[in-house]
Amino acid sequence: MVSGTSEGTGRLPLEEKILKEQLRPSAEDRVYIQRVADRLLAAIAENGKAEGMVVGSIARNTWVKGDRDLDVFLLFSPEMPREALEAEGLALARTIARKFTNTFCEKYAEHPYINATIDSIDVDLVPCYNVASAAHIQSAVDRTPFHTRYITEKINGLVDDVLLLKRFAKAGGIYGSDQMTEGFSGYLCELLVLHYGGFTPLLAAASEWGPHLKIDIEHHAAKEFDEPLIVIDPVDPRRNVAAAVSIDRMAEFVELARGYREAPSEVFFTLPEPRGVTRDDLVEIISKRGTALYAITFATPPFIEEIVVPQLKRSTGAIRDLLARSGFVVHHAHYRMGTVRCMLLFELLNDALPPVRRHEGPPVWNRLNAEKFREKYRDATLPGPFIENGRYVMEVPREFVCAADLLTSPALLNVGVGRHVRMSLEKDWCVFEGADCWQEEFAAFIAGFFSRCSPLVRITRGR
Question: Quick one: which of 35, 34, 26, 32 has its CA closest to 65?
Fold first, then answer.
């Protein structure tokens, strides 16, 4: 158990050191970003078509040193039709961006917005409705101003605890509510700190967490949820802020909390170094493991991560099942959305099979179906039909004796892959085997594929 906390804060000296040296933004950083924000808000006010508002961690003062992401919302009248909001909102965002930079692009969430680089700061200009309460939201982003107001009002005295939690989660690889991470968002971190009253009591409580834990700060939940972690949004009683957190990320947070409390160390706040493998590394890995590696790559569908990644997950599972039904044992499978191409990676325990397989028929006493089965295979050249355990069994030719043949066949399109993934596959896909699976874009992904371990194991190994 931890001991020796700094007087008055409940924090350890190492935590104060981390805060001072790594996490708290400097006064110069705060002034710099505030000046950019003020210029943007002034430009929006001068235009007069919408009200400007800074939201997110910068507005809530919970941003970590080095983060230079500024979210500015353009609040329009809720009477405006949705189509007009998208068109006029995007046009205004583009107009504001042009006043400060030529480096901007259009991005998409629930509706389009502008992402710009202004004075080295990553700026999102996001149109939304200026609704009276979160109960009247018309799009998901309409909640964000209410999140900002709620946290800003209540976070006093706990900002440092939020910074510690964010870095702790990021160092553990569980920070981010994106589809690939399935972890803890910044807003969720803020709410957890608020609920438990600080970083230290949060870790003490998390050490005893179990699945389907429910936290309802405002005691106003308006529906039931079945996710592993349930944190009711204080501004929207029908929303689970922790909906993105998978059971594995929740378990990893529990493990990290226990490990840190047992042996506090700065390594729990140290961001992991990016890792990759070379082609030669991959040759050695495969040789030592004695398994077969296959990669399927195809053009990345032109949609946002929130749409594509769930389809990659579904597609990987469907192809894994296809391989298993065909007799190929999948040891591990995973997926990655790249900028240009996506990769589905499969490690097989076997990738070659004999040309015959067993095919079980109905029980003999299921007379109608049994007679149909017997007649169907009566003149077959392979053994059978014979009776085993009361039912007909036949040996039949195997359709695919090599995994590569299966993965390059049209059978790949006949399983439940995601809709947009299917559209890409229908145009073209490539299958790579062994060390040929290596591609520079996916070097880090492949490295992680073969070095799986829990966050605590990774951290303690690195000490």
Answer: 26
